[in-house]
């Protein structure tokens, strides 16, 4: 057996507790608030609301996917409707459209932010409307923490009178011209899944400036119980609330969120310092006015100019051989079998990102030694390739 097989695993993005989480959870046990409601849920919602600012109302839910599902229900998305969604994203952005029997219409990314192209968004809206389709919502995503071009997307949405459901699952702590991600949609969603910048082990939140919508979402998320001493229901309900235990973890994580953003950005800086100069290598650009939480550091590898023609798959396999996890970028939704036949408006950008893109280990608990291990593997790969390919 080689030494390599004994190298400890380096994960792409592992959960990272700050220290206070356990005492919040212990408090929940001590007070017997072991339920999908309680003081930590209220406290976590208040923490988020204060952090986001801009008079946002927040309801904590069981997942980001549940938050998206409720957002689309609040907007009245129904069978036969269409919802425009960024193609370059995780499937959870689009699945809730399908839950409601509506059709996702996928829009390609722009090269500047890797997020929804405003030009293609407008093209899609015009074409769908010309075909007599009813578009109920637009779902832009802030991929890997990078703010989408929201000023233009908001202007287009407003012009055509279509609400925005902002998928900020990956972007808590990122800002655009001083505004927090998660505050730029009519409805916005956050995720606290285990691999996100902060975690509640599993959870999400729905955010809006409209208190009435958040109140309605809370009602729907708790089985839609009408006011009565018995159980009375006039609409379909869901069991989507966050538990008081998970919210306790969230309260502890909120204390370290700003540190986590700085740590993720330091990971990015580490990679950028020695990889930006390698021919054929490039990074997700941070547009003017944007501040990314750099949830994951992502690179593009163009084999037409990279050392010895290495591909992102060569990188991934070399890292995996040393027990280091990395992952291709999200495979675009218009390429997924589950969404086959759905309309797509694109110019090949997401396809190229998927083909050339790789997410590098980006967790905040990575040690300098871990990062050095990643560097050593890649430098060795460049050397081998440069020598073997004159
Ligand atoms: C993680 C994620 C979600 C879903 O959040 P869950 O809490 O895992 O349900 C939605 N959209 C994007 C872009 C995500 O990365």
TrEMBL record:
GO terms classed as biological process: polysaccharide biosynthetic process
Keyword vocabulary terms for this entry: Aminotransferase, Pyridoxal phosphate, Transferase
Modification N6-(pyridoxal phosphate)lysine occurs at: 196
Pfam families, sorted: DegT_DnrJ_EryC1
Record field: catalytic activity: GDP-alpha-D-perosamine + 2-oxoglutarate = GDP-4-dehydro-alpha-D-rhamnose + L-glutamate
Domain of life: Bacteria
Involved pathway(s): Bacterial outer membrane biogenesis; LPS O-antigen biosynthesis
Location of the active site: 196 (proton acceptor)
InterPro entries per the UniProt record, alphabetical: DegT/StrS_aminotransferase, PyrdxlP-dep_Trfase, PyrdxlP-dep_Trfase_major, PyrdxlP-dep_Trfase_small
Gene Ontology MF, one: pyridoxal phosphate binding
EC number of this enzyme: 2.6.1.102
Cofactor(s) of this protein: pyridoxal 5'-phosphate
CDD domains with a match to the protein in the record: AHBA_syn
Family label: Belongs to the DegT/DnrJ/EryC1 family.
Official protein name in the record: GDP-perosamine synthase
Species annotation: Dinghuibacter silviterrae
């Amino acid at each position: 057996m080689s030494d390599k097989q004994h190298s400890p695993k380096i994960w792409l993005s592992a959960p990272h507790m700050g220290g206070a989480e356990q005492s919040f959870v212990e408090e929940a046990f001590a007070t017997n608030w072991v339920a999908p409601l309680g003081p930590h849920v209220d406290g976590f919602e208040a923490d988020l609301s204060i952090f986001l600012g801009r008079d946002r109302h927040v309801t904590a839910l069981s997942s980001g996917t549940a938050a998206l599902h409720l957002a689309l229900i609040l907007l009245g998305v129904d069978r036969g409707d269409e919802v425009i969604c960024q193609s370059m994203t995780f499937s959870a952005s689009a699945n809730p459209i399908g839950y409601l029997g509506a059709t996702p219409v996928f829009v390609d990314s722009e090269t500047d932010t890797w997020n929804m192209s405003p030009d293609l968004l407008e093209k899609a809206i015009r074409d769908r409307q010309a075909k007599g389709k009813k578009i109920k919502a637009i779902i832009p995503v802030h991929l890997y923490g990078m703010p989408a071009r929201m000023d233009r997307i908001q202007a287009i949405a407003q012009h055509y009178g279509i609400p925005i459901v902002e998928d900020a699952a990956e972007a808590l702590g990122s800002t655009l011209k001083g505004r927090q991600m998660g505050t730029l949609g009519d409805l916005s969603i956050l995720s606290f899944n285990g691999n996100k910048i902060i975690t509640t082990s599993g959870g999400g939140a729905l955010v809006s400036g409209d208190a009435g919508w958040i109140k309605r979402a809370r009602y729907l998320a708790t089985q839609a119980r009408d006011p009565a001493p018995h159980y009375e229901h006039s609409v379909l309900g869901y069991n989507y609330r966050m538990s008081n235990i998970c919210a306790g973890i969230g309260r502890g994580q909120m204390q370290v969120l700003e540190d986590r953003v700085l740590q993720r950005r330091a990971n990015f800086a580490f990679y950028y310092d020695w990889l930006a100069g390698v021919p054929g290598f490039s990074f997700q650009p941070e547009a003017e006015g944007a501040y990314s939480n750099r949830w994951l550091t992502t690179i593009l590898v163009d084999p037409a100019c990279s050392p010895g023609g290495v591909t992102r798959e060569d990188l991934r396999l070399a890292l995996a051989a040393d027990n280091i996890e990395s992952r291709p970028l999200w495979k675009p939704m218009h390429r997924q079998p589950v969404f086959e036949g759905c309309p797509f408006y694109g110019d090949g950008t997401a396809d190229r990102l998927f083909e050339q893109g790789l997410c590098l280990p980006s967790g905040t608990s990575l040690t300098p030694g871990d990062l050095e291990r990643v560097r050593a593997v890649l430098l060795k790969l460049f050397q081998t390739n440069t020598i073997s390919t004159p």
